[in-house]
Amino acid sequence: MVLKNMLIVSDLDGTLIGRNSHLSSTTRESFQKARRAGAICAIATGRSLRGAEEVLDSAFPLDYLIFSSGAGVLDWKSKTLLHKTALDSGQVRGLHDYLSSQGLDYTIQLETPDSHLFLHSPLKSGNLSFADRINHHKSYALPLNEAQLPLRASEFIVVDSNQHSSQVFEKIHSALSRDFNVVRATSPFDGASVWIEIFHLETSKALASDFLRRLHQKEIHETYALGNDYNDLQLLSWAGNSLVVGDAVPLLIEKYHAVKNHSQDAFVDALEIWMKKRKK
Question: Residue 264 needs a FRET pair 20 to 30 A away by CA distance; which of 93, 104, 153, 192 works?
Answer without folding.
Answer: 192
